Structures are given as C-alpha cells and as structure tokens.
Amino acid sequence: MKGMGVAAVANSAQDGQTNAQAQGQAGVTVPPRAELVMIGTEMLLGEIIDSNAARIAQRLAGLGIYVYFKTTVGDNWTRMAAALSQALTRADIVITSGGLGPTQDDLTREVVAAVLGVPLVEDPVALEHVESWFRRHNRPMPATNRKQALIPQGAVIIPNPKGTAPGIIARRGHQAVICLPGVPYELETMLDETVVPYLKRHYVTNGSLHSRVLKFYGIGESLLAERLDDLLAMENPTVATYAGRVEVRVRITARARSEEEAAALLVPVEEEIRRRVGDYLYGYDQDTLETVAGQALRAAGWTLALAESCTGGLIASRIVNVPGSSEYFLGGVVAYSNDAKVELLGVPADLLAAHGAVSAPVAEAMAVGAMRRLGATLGVSVTGIAGPGGGTPEKPVGLVYIGLARGDWTEVHRLQLGGDRERIRWHTSQAALDLIRRHAQAAAPSG
Amino acid sequence: MKGMGVAAVANSAQDGQTNAQAQGQAGVTVPPRAELVMIGTEMLLGEIIDSNAARIAQRLAGLGIYVYFKTTVGDNWTRMAAALSQALTRADIVITSGGLGPTQDDLTREVVAAVLGVPLVEDPVALEHVESWFRRHNRPMPATNRKQALIPQGAVIIPNPKGTAPGIIARRGHQAVICLPGVPYELETMLDETVVPYLKRHYVTNGSLHSRVLKFYGIGESLLAERLDDLLAMENPTVATYAGRVEVRVRITARARSEEEAAALLVPVEEEIRRRVGDYLYGYDQDTLETVAGQALRAAGWTLALAESCTGGLIASRIVNVPGSSEYFLGGVVAYSNDAKVELLGVPADLLAAHGAVSAPVAEAMAVGAMRRLGATLGVSVTGIAGPGGGTPEKPVGLVYIGLARGDWTEVHRLQLGGDRERIRWHTSQAALDLIRRHAQAAAPSG
Fold it and tell me: Do the Cβ atoms of A331 and B330 come within 8 Å?
C-alpha cells in the first residue's frame, strides 16, 4: 500500500465517493460520511483556537457518522467555495461553522447558495428570529443584521435560541449542507436541539459504530502502547492510543449491525486493557479528572478544601466548573505570597523561614491549614515553582509538592515536572486531582 | 464574482498555484503561501481540541506568510497522502503536526516519504536524539521508539529539546514540507527555535504584510461593526471584526514593500478606530485581559487580593498564568461555601443571612475582607449564580455581583449574564479583570 502512487490514492474509489454512490455501486451499507468546513480568517491567523470542530465531531462520532476531513478556510469567497465544493464531492453531510454574522466578512450564506446553484432569499421565519432576539434583549436591531435572515432557496433554518444568526440546512439530493454560527455556545445548543435529531432521522442507518474511550493518568503513551501492542493490531474492535494533555487515551471502536452487538464486542477488549493497565485508568469518554474526583468525593461523603500556590486557583476552578460541585467543595485559598500562607492558612512563619515556601513541611502545613480553617474532610495543598523564573539548583523549575491532610493523617508527594509554566501548572492540577480521586475512592463504601 | 462557476473557482489561477509558479508567470513578488495539515483521528472524533494550528498560524502571520487552508485528517495513510498532495499543489510551505509518535498509528514519516517519492532512511543524528532523550530521563528506550529516527532521504531533522520525536524538514524544489509533533509544548519550542528562523532565511522576501489586532471588551460585534462600517470596506489596510470569547477583536492588515511602510499604513486607521470605540479597547495582539490588568497593577504599584465564589479560582488562575504575577498578586480565597466566606474573609454571618450569598452587601464585604486579610491595595470579589441549578425568580442564573475595595472606598457592580455555566464564569472573569485594569490604569502616574 505504501508504494501506491499518490495521485491514484487521492482519487481512489474508496475515498472519492460519497456514501450514497458507494452504496449504489456496491450494494452494502456503509456509515454516512461527514466533512467539516470551519470558516474564519482568525483561525488561520492563529488568533483563536477552533474548539467548535471538536464539539461537532463528538456528536457525529456518537451517531456513528465518520468524519474523514476537516478543512479550515478564511473569510474569502473563492476559497470558501473551493473547500465546500470539494467536501461535497466526498461527503454525505457537510457541516460549516462561522461566517453567519452580520458583517461584510460573513459570506457563508452567499457561498452555499452559489455552490448549490440556487438564489438567496429572505426567509420570513429567519427574519422574525433575528428581530425577536433584539426585542427580547431590548436592543435596537442594526440594519446589517437583516442579512442574517437570508437563506439559500429551498433551505430550512435551524433555530438559534442563544443568538441572532439562525443556522441553515440546505439539501442537494441525498446530501445536506448544515451551516452553524461560529459562537461556541450558540453552536452547541443548535447541534443538540436540532442538528443531532435531524441527522438521526435522515442519516443514521442500522449499521452501527460504537466507540469507548478509556482515560489514563500516570503512564506515558509509549509504555501504554507497548503493553497493548498486540491489541493495537486488531481489526474489529480497533484499539488506538492518543497522547492527551498530561494523560493518555485509548479508544476502542467496534463495528456491527446493531448498537448492542457493537457494544458487546467492546467488552472483552476493555476487560483485557483493564487487566493490563487498569491501575492508571481514571475514567471513560467524557470523564475528566475533576468530574471523577468529584464523584469519588460525593460517594465517600467527603468535603474538600484546597490551598494552592503555583497552580493559583486552577485546581479549584476545574472543580468548580463541574455543576453541583458545591456539594463537596467548600473552598480554597490561593496562597501565592508567604503572608497569605501565614494569614489565611496558619502556616507557621518559622516553618516558611526554615524550609522555604516550596518544601514538604510547608505543603503539609498548607493542607492541614485548609482542612482545619474550612472544616473539610480532606485538605489538599500545592506548592511549587512553575517558572520560568524562580528556580535554583536545589529547587529547580518544575519542583512541586502536593500535600494531603485528613484528620491526623498527612502525606506529601514530591514531583519534578517538565515543560513550560502552563504545562507544569496543568500537570500539577492533574496530579492533585488524581490523588484526590484515589484517596476518596479508597474510602468510599463501594471501594 | 459570486456568479462564477464553482469548478472554475476551485481551479482558478490565483488559487491553484504556488507562489513560485505565480512569480514565474507574473514577474511580481507575492508573499509565500503555507498550508497546515493537522494529523490525528482524535481531532476528527472531537476528543481533543486542536490548539497547535493557532500556534503555527500565529508565527506564520508574524512572518507575513499567508495561510489559506488548513486540513485536518485522521491517522489514515490514504487520506493523509491525499491532504498532503493537495496542499503541495497550492502552497510553498506545508506544515504538518502529529503522527510522529512511536506507535503503529503514527504514519507521518511514511506518508511524507511516499508523497515526495523518496525512501525512508534511519538518520544517525535523529537516532542519537531519541536515545539521548531516554538516557537523560533515566528510562529504558522501548523498541518502538527506534522508528522515530526514520526520515525521508535528503531531509534534515528539527531538534526537539522537550520530547523524543525530532521534527523533519523535507524539500522538493522550492517547496518545504515541515513535520512537527502533536504535543503542544514540544511543537512550540521547535517552531521558535528552528522553524521560524528557517522560514525567515528561506522564504521571507521584502514584500511585507503587517497586521495589528485591537481587542475590545464591553461592546458587541454588531455594534462595533456598525461604528466601523466604512472602515470595513477599505482595501489597504483591510479592517475586519471577529467575535472572541466574550470580547471582540478588530484586525487591521496592511500590505507594502517594506515592514516600515506597512506599519506606517496602519497608524491612521488605528487612530480612527480608537477615536470611535477607544473606550472599549483594552489591548493589542497577544494581550489578554489578565496580562493588561497585571501591567496596570504593576504600573500603579498596587497589590491585588481576590475573593471568588462562582468563578471558583478562575480569575486567580488566569492572573497566575502570567509569569511574574507574584509581584502584584498576593493571593485569594475561593469562598464557595458560606462558612468559607465567614471564616476566611470575615463576612458577617448576619449579612449572609439577611441578603443571601449572592448580593451586593456580601460582594462588598468579600472584597473588603480579601483586601484586609491579605493586606492588598485592591480587593476584588465575585459572587453569583453560574447555574445550571440554583436560580430563583429574584436571583436568576447569570446574576453576578463584582465588588471592589481600596482603602475605605468600595464599589459593587451588578451583572445579568447569559449562556451556560462555563460562559457565565468566563464572562465574569472578563468583567472582573476589565474592572481591575480600569481602576489600576486610572491610578497609575501615566494615566
């Protein structure tokens, strides 16, 4: 396969056809294919990170719809048309994001209409949608927003409960072009309320793809892949490893005629993976260390207090981002200065003087202080040197202590981490959340 | 232009040629063109957000190199080859990210060699690079990592000081294919240390593109675009607006023969924009509200203490992510429970009982408490209902109070925000950082 000519590869029958074409010729049911076309010059200038593609892709994966290509183009008529046209030669479903705003730069409506060869028309439902948004927010509607009521003839709109720009679903034969705005929380609502149900109705056949992601902390990708070497060569289910942000993921994907059958295929493979590397497994699919740590605290009936120095509130912020976290999280102290450690956590000033702020005794005292001051079951502290400055030969950048306190028991972990400031802080938050999870899980009735 | 046939558009001379081809024909100097090919099935499944593209694009924009397309493909030989081949028909420089790891899934080396029509060879420098990484980290090298020493014949390696996988620069005539790993902090270092100097040496001509981004908080994109309507229609410089994450950006881009000339073209346009909407302007280019607030605090000689409820450490975490923030940031309290507000901030229990935790008097008391306990010049507090639960008709989800205290002076702002939990928390952090910036800037000697 690797010797194949490239031009031939790019135009090969497997890749150059849409699902319906392949089905027509081969008479088999293959999953529908989608492509994403992300629109916005700001992404190509690196001014914003494209988080929408992941939102859309997650939903499509959940429906068993393959995404083979994602193309990002600027707000440029010619290149938008080229990307959209190419996507329509390969995919059943093309989802765009961006370019639906009210400004002169926002060209998605015009380009979709031109590529589909239909005129743009003002849609009364869309107009009412835009106007009512401004009414509800007691703002006058700028004249430019009227353009947001235009849709390609024959298309239908996707209601946007959180913003002015309605989305668009335009059909061409069996194909659909689905246009969503670029604002993430508008897009997310529209995906869940309209696009996913639409795709289920029109594209999801009984052939099913089922996927499960296992998430690991504390083991590197190379080592994990080495331990799973034979499994990585399997064909159904397939097993693949991915390096995440200071964690590793393993995805198992099974294909079968029904969802139940595909799900059943996953079970023995997952069990084998757990047997080999289960010590490092912290969760599944949408789990994060903060959601899993929170569930463990809730199950144990524990409350948590934090004392953060180098992470500066990052751990607290991750915990608080989980809805319902007020049940187990009491609060924390961002003790960035020595005075804050003394004043807010009761760390003895002579302990700081004797050992320095980044030391095991101070980490222990911070954890105990947070636990006592807030009356929590578990106190967890972090003190370290995130850099880029502040390192010494004895205490280099990346040196971090994590302290835990529960009743009279305490424990301190010493880590030497690599990477830049952001990575050291993130890694520290991963390590602390994993320790919280492990301790609370060990205490919970169900083990 | 909008009536143009699409097939013709996709293959038009302007878009279907690389820079060298265009220059050869037209005899003019046009800026080099780059395309990005991001590799990783996990991106197409929505398991990770692609932040690398923004890192690469920022550097290219800084060099005046255009990026017209970014394509994301999975770890699939055929589709990787198709994306890379297509990029090479349009671009002078193709930068890939991902697929350089040690596993069976990592195919970038193989695909690049095949597309360029050269064999893969083991490079002794690359092998030493991989081996030395494991030596330095006192780990045995898994056999699979040996594959990371393979490069297309004739290519050179890009040192990777932070990981095992060296990058690759492979040439074909005037074109370069540059392969970088998918791990963000490895990629970033390699970009800055090797790729940017390489591109400067080989591709940056005297024709120059100069861009400046103005960042606004507190004004919506529609209104801003309306105020700048005539400027948005200009051709050189061009002016464009973008909705950010609870902020709006305006990019001014000028083209000229020299950098100085291009930079000079920006000045009058920027001045005009400042004249019209300067009240909302908080910064430029890589500025964020946390870096600007930090600069303002430093200039004023102030220190800051925080008391966060619904943001749960998000504001502190953003401030601490700025290197050197220990100069002005003393610390904060994440007072998530009422007890924490009483114990750590000295908020009177009867005030909480009388007004509730989400109220102006409690916000004020929290700000004063943080200021006094930590001995800071400025105390800033946040209390609100981030949802999804916890709202009432009187105090709906999205209600937020921000308190400020300095000496005997206090001030409380009431906000009613929209969106989901994450957006409300982010918006609150934007609002608080903007208030810190404004207050500190008003106090600084230079105004």
Answer: no
Share the mean pLDDT of chain B: 88
Identify the band that residue A10 occupies on the pLDDT scale cut at 50, 70 and 90: very low
* pLDDT recorded at residue A293: 98
How close, in Å, is residue A61 to chain B by CA atoms?
6
CB A436 within 8 A of CB A315: no
Using an 8 Å CB-CB cutoff, list chain B residues near A78: 1, 9, 12, 14-15
A136-178 residue pLDDT tens: 877 788 888 899 999 999 999 999 988 888 999 999 999 999 9
Rounded to the nearest angstrom, the minimum Cα separation between B351 and chain A is 19
B194 near A CB under 8 A:
no
Of the pLDDT bands very low, low, confident and very high (cuts 50, 70, 90), residue B10 is very low
Asked if the Cβ–Cβ distance from A2 to B331 is below 8 Å, we say: no
In three-state form (DSSP H/G/I as H, E/B as E, the rest C), the secondary structure along chain A is CCCCCHHHHHCCCCCCCCHHHHHHHHCCCCCCEEEEEEECHHHHCCCCCECHHHHHHHHHHHCCCEEEEEEEECCCHHHHHHHHHHHHHHCCEEEEECCCCCCCCCCHHHHHHHHHCCCEEECHHHHHHHHHHHHHCCCCCCHHHHHHHEEECCCEEECCCCCCCCEEEEEECCEEEEEECCCHHHHHHHHHHHHHHHHHHHHCCCCEEEEEEEEECCCCHHHHHHHCCCHHHCCCCEEEEEECCCCEEEEEEEEECCHHHHHHHHHHHHHHHHHHHHHHEEEECCCCHHHHHHHHHHHHCCCEEEEECCCCCHHHHHHHCCCCHHHCEEEEEEECCHHHHHHHHCCCHHHHHHHCCCCHHHHHHHHHHHHHHHCCCEEEEEEECCCCCCCCCCCCCCEEEEEEEECCEEEEEEEECCCCHHHHHHHHHHHHHHHHHHHHHHHCCCC
- Here the ipTM equals 0.72
pLDDT one-digit tens code per residue, A241-275: 887 788 999 989 888 877 788 889 999 999 999 99
Q: Which residues from chain A sit within 8 angstroms of residue B145, using beta carbons?
A: 222
* Yes or no, beta carbons of B58 and A46 under 8 Å apart: yes
Query: Closest chain A residue to B253 measured between Cα atoms?
Result: A45
Task: Give the model's confidence band at A99: pLDDT under 50 very low, under 70 low, under 90 confident, else very high.
Answer: very high
| CB-based contacts of B310, cutoff 8 Å, min separation 6 | A320, B382, B383, B384, B385, B386, B400, B424, B425, B428
Q: Which domains does chain A have, with CATH numbers?
A: 11-203 (3.40.980.10), 208-284 (3.30.70.2860), 289-443 (3.90.950.20)
